[in-house]
Amino acid sequence: MEPTLDLQTAIRTRLINDPTVTALVPAAAILDRHTRPELERMIILGEGQHVAADSYSSFHERVFLTLHVWVRADDFVLCKTIADAVRRALRGAPWIASGHVVHGATISTRYLRDPGGEYAHGVISIDAVMQGLAA
Fold it and tell me: Which Gene3D superfamilies does the UniProt entry name for this protein (predicted)?
């Protein structure tokens, strides 16, 4: 499977199976879509990039993925709480992402003001090192 899609699928699976995350954002509101949120709370699986890196002793992929946390709120309290739950749910490598093993991931988060003033917006950036599983 294409590495960014593989990682995205594994991340969504982790998030919808984490009770702390789903207590804050329903599993049905954790999805891949190209629109502003219409719900009170959403996690949107966003942009991805994959860079082949063959400088290791075996072939690895470097994969970047973005998650967007949207919360209808006047402040960032719930948005930051959800982002922290996501970070905690994604801790712990290595883990399997269908056709790849994730050896490590760096997670960073930025918080942005929605120009319309209706939503708090968190952008979670994931930088993962992945290796393909043997066929």
Answer: 3.30.2000.30
Phi/psi at 82 (5° precision): -65, -45
DSSP string, 71-113: EESSSSHHHHHHHHHHHHHT-SS-EEETTEEEEEEEEEEEEEE
- Count of beta carbons in the 10 Å neighbourhood of residue 1: 13
Tell me how far CA of residue 55 lies from CA of 3, 60, 61, 62, 129, in angstroms.
18, 8, 10, 11, 12
Phi, psi (rounded to 5 degrees) for 8: -60, -45
Nearest to 85 by CA among 135, 37, 10, 16: 16
> At CB < 8 A and 24+ separation, what contacts does 82-85 make?
82/21, 82/24, 82/25, 82/41, 82/43, 82/122, 83/109, 83/111, 83/122, 83/124, 85/18, 85/20, 85/21, 85/24
The highest-level CATH class for domain 3-132 is: alpha beta
Interval 89-101: pLDDT, tens: 988 766 777 777 7
- Sequence ranges of the domains in the chain: 3-132
What tokens appear for 33 in the block?
């879509």
